[in-house]
Amino acid sequence: FYQKASGAAECLRCKPGSLCPLGASLELPAACEPGTYANATDDDGDPDCFDCPAGSSCGGGAAPPAECSPGSVAATPGLAKCERCEPGTSSGAGSESCSECAAGTYAANSGQGQCVPCPYPLSSERGAVICSVCQKGFYLLQSADPADVFKSPTDYCKPCPPNAECSDDTSLATLGVPLGFWRASFSSAELTECRAFGGDGQAGQARCVGNVDPGEASGRRVQEAGLDYCADAFAGPECQLCREPNHYLDADGAACNKCVAVGTAAGHMAGIALGLCVAFGLVALAYSTQRGQTEWRKERFIGLPLRIADRTGDAIYKIGLIPKFKILFGFYQVCLVLSTTYSARLPERYTGWTEALAEAVFIDWSGVVLPVQCLPHKSRLIAVAISPIGVIALLLFAGIVLRLCARWRRARRGAGCESASEVDGATSNVLGAGEAQLQDQEPPSSSAAEPPTALAETDDAAVFSWPAEVALGLLDLTPAGLVLVFCFVPSISASIFRAWSCQAYTVSPPDEPLRQVSYMRQDASVECRTEDHESITDIAVGFIVLWPAGSLVLFTSLLAACYKPLQAKTPTALTRATAFLHREYKTTWYWWEAVELARKLVLTGAVLLIPEERAFVRLVVATLICSCYVALVGATQPFKRVEDDALAVASSLVLLLFFLGANWTTIYLGIEERYPNAEAAAALFGFNNLNAVVDSMIVLVAIVFPIAIAGGIFAVRNVAKVPTIRLVSSKQEPELTLALGLTWHLFNSHIWSTGQDAAAVIKNELQHLLPGIKIFLDVDDLANIGALEEYISRSQTILFFLSKGYFGSHNCLREVRASLDQKKPLVLVQEGNLEKGGTLAALRAECPGHLREAIFDKGWSLTTWHRIEAFQLVSLKVITEALLLCSPAYADETALPLYVPGEAQREHLGFLQPVVLWVSPSNSGAVYLVNELKSKFAADTLTVVVEDEAPTQESRKPTHMLLYLNANTWSGERGVRLAEQVKQARADKLTIVMAHENDPTRDGCAFDCMFQTTPQELIAGLDGHPGLYKALATSFFPGAFREVSLVLLAKKLGATPVSENVNDARSGVIRYATRGRVSNRASTRRSSRFSTSEQVDVGPEESARQVV
């Protein structure tokens, strides 16, 4: 107790922890030792000292316990002062212990009250004194001092690479490689998605198991993967090799199978080769022997496929499918190597099917019987390059054997030399070349008893030497050899150039100069730029000389050898054998196939000589080549057919777009890989992902290709309207060829006085209708009158223009005798004007007797020359067909149907207004003409009325009157009656349509006869109307001219050209009953259209009133 005041009644109690000795007037501070404190005072005034509590410090004396400040702790009671926390730990106020910093925080100094979060993008473990590891989504690029990492975190921590998995504290060496991915080195940040190699999307995951454990189910595979990210059965880049020797990756790309024995594979190869030889032998036998060409085709089973093959080959040749196939096949070969040759990386949904198609084009012969991984690449390359040479050599040897066997058969029969048409022509047909005989042939004899088609045959008595037979045997199957070379060269050349095709994988860290390891794409067990690889490339260099360079030299040499005969249009055995190379091209650009081959060789293989590190340069080179080629094809238009030019331009343009798209995707992916999170590629291209880039390319192709094709169709339609003579079978202009040593296709023999004007017209018209034809005409080409026989010898076909005085001309007879002596094929053209030509009987009588049979009785083509253009066109087609059948290009043909766009027979006519045609029963022969008109045409708006008087009913009132003129028109009472009807028709202002008959078998006569038999009042117009013959009558001539006359008559009745697709019933379109050759069945259908009750009665008692 204490009392500080005097006079107090009692003492005050001392506060707890104070010292109050007896008699104390003041409270004195306690005197506790450090680490204790006074918390109570006993009765005698002496305070009790207690130990300082944990988490506090006690300085002794009278001081109370003090809480430890943040960053310091008092772990036990009785401490005089708190202890500071170590670096990496922290504590709050009054803490008894320090706590480790949580992951992602650090305490660099002692005595920190709290841990500091790691700066972005660093992280740390628990109790870290510094942040030196990368947080999730980043990886440590390289090992470094933690202080350096902490000082410059963005220099060391990099965003996780695409497809990788980065947890906290991930380094470049410990990158997470997920299922289905592989990387070449622990120091590489580039992950490669394992390809399926023919299997589905799971095949890559079956081989490449990565190093990330996605769950218990696949934990075993992860453990088995070891350090190469592959499952236990696989190894190598992208885990595409099998660990066990003598095993190969199966077709599904997900399992390894054991290779078959080499002996077994050799047996399979021998069996296939034997089967091919037997098949080739049977085909050759079917087409090279007379029995195969005749008897076999009559057989029930073997005959059907042979006939189908014949017709298919003929159709393919006529409609021009071969050049289109070559264009599309070349396009197909090039566009499918984008991923393999140019390393163009496209999404799987675009490349999965193209790679499968690419394997179908680039044939690996060794892989047919032995999987590619079961045979070293060097051996496989030798097999791929050598085996096609054996096939082609075997084929050419077969041609020689067939020739020599044919010679042996002829020798046994003692019949001299078998005709070339029996051996050569048929053999060529089976090869798809569609060629005629492979040897030069002499023109036929006009004096011998042979028809004009005899040019297809050779002299059976000719004997060829053994070397000549061997040469001809080689030429027999040269077309087939060229077809094989065409198909094989791009694929074999690509296989050769792929010796330099390596798949590169990055092994260097991102911050160091690029270092890559490369493996052959064709054999991943071979590392590029090693001794093993160099041994393969050394062999490939030799094969480059053999195949790419050799085939280019072969094509160029063959085309160079064909230069003169092609320019002179004189086919030889060589030009026929090599037609596959130049047939579809214009003569000026006959060498284009060599250019096309060079383009394909560069695009499919030669660019592989550019190193893999510069793969983008390959794309640039290919893009430049495609750009130049598109411009070149568009400027030159080398093909004969316009549609082929259009297809070539369209396919080349699409190929250019493909390469441009590959450029875009390569640049896009390069930017994405360099700046993974910067979205720089999207900002540059305007697309959020690669699929959008590829889709835009596809849309662009889908727009451009139809536009190009539409332009080609428009050009084809325009060319189809050009009035030139064309083949009905192919709708193309015929090929004009000359036999070797000839100058002119046609020699125009005529007499000056009565035939000069017609001969000049014939030449001018043929030059317009047949561009490139060479015609001898004396006024243009005669230099020496004494050399007529020489001019005849240099002409392929001779035209005799038969007019008055022709056989009386000395020079004309010289030409006739020279033609017959030299066995030249003839075509006879009779002058249609009787004043200048006379009848055929008169011309025959004028001809010398010893020449008459050779000219008139040997079946030479004969036509009549008229002064009306539509009829002249018929004669010109007859002349053209005759001279074509005598040319080497068509020597095997017996007929060549021709047409001219816009000619009368091909017009689609229609009566837009109803036409009622009045025919008088008194008009002798008119009803015959009506029935003939009806048998040729059918029109719903044409009505024929046969009555004595013109009907007056409005619905049947005639719009025209038919007046048929022949020798009997105005004779007798019927003629008088007809004259009255004509006068009445003129008075009624009815249009009179006249048809003049010139066919003697139909009582035809010259038009001069009409002026002698027609009533003079009609001729002079005494009835108040213009003379009857002021209007022209439609001439009707016999034969092929009659159809033209019917068309001209229909036009005079009001028929006009209409579109083919106009509805027949509404427009009254005339439907031709005949066009060219028609079958009996078609004729029966036409006849049924006009039943007996519908036919106009042409008997002697004609009906007085009949409506048709």
Report what the structure shows.
This protein has 1108 residues and is an alpha/beta fold. Helix content is 42%, strand content 11%. The chain contains 38 helices and 37 strands. A six-stranded mixed β-sheet has the order 35-34-33-31-32-37. Strands 25-24-26-27-28 form a five-stranded parallel β-sheet, sandwiched between helices. A hairpin with a 6-residue loop joins strand 19 (247-249) and strand 20 (256-258). Helix 8 packs parallel to helix 22. The longest helix is centred in the middle third of the chain and has 37 residues, at 377-413. The model is unreliable at 214-226, 415-462 and 1062-1108 (pLDDT under 50).
Put the structure in a nutshell.
With 1108 residues, this protein is α/β, with parallel strands linked by helices.
Ranges with pLDDT <50 over ≥5 residues?
Answer: 214-226, 415-462, 1062-1108
Count of helix runs = 38
Oligomer: single chain
Total beta-strand segments: 37
Shape: elongated
Distance between the termini: 158 Å
Q: Give the biggest beta sheet.
A: 6 strands, mixed
Coarse structural class: alpha/beta
Mean pLDDT: 80
Give the neighbour order of strands across the main sheet.
35-34-33-31-32-37
